[in-house]
Write a structure and sequence with these properties.
This protein is an alpha+beta fold and about 70 residues long. Helices cover about 35% and strands about 40% of the residues. It has two helices and four strands. The protein has a four-stranded antiparallel β-sheet with strand order 1-2-4-3. A hairpin with a 2-residue loop joins strand 1 and strand 2 (about 20-25). It is globular, with a radius of gyration of 11 Å.
Length: about 70
């Protein structure tokens, strides 16, 4: 998974501006990608929980003009 694919996955999982997704992939890589998206200002993480098989992300999708 790369950063753009993660962002598109989050975009499709939104309810308004809020998202909550559970991703069944390598947790450390997904957390790192999510933190990079947060640093870029594309998302704001509220919760980032590693689980046995994957990671749970919850937060706010920021709409940044292109």
């Amino acid at each position: 998974m790369n950063k753009d694919r993660l962002f598109k996955f989050i975009q499709t999982s939104t309810r308004g501006n809020f998202f909550s997704v559970e991703i069944a992939e390598d947790g450390t890589k997904v957390v790192q990608l999510a933190k990079e998206l947060e640093e870029e200002g594309r998302i704001k993480l509220r919760a980032c929980t590693k689980k046995e098989q994957g990671v749970y992300l919850e937060g706010i999708l920021k709409f940044v003009p292109s």
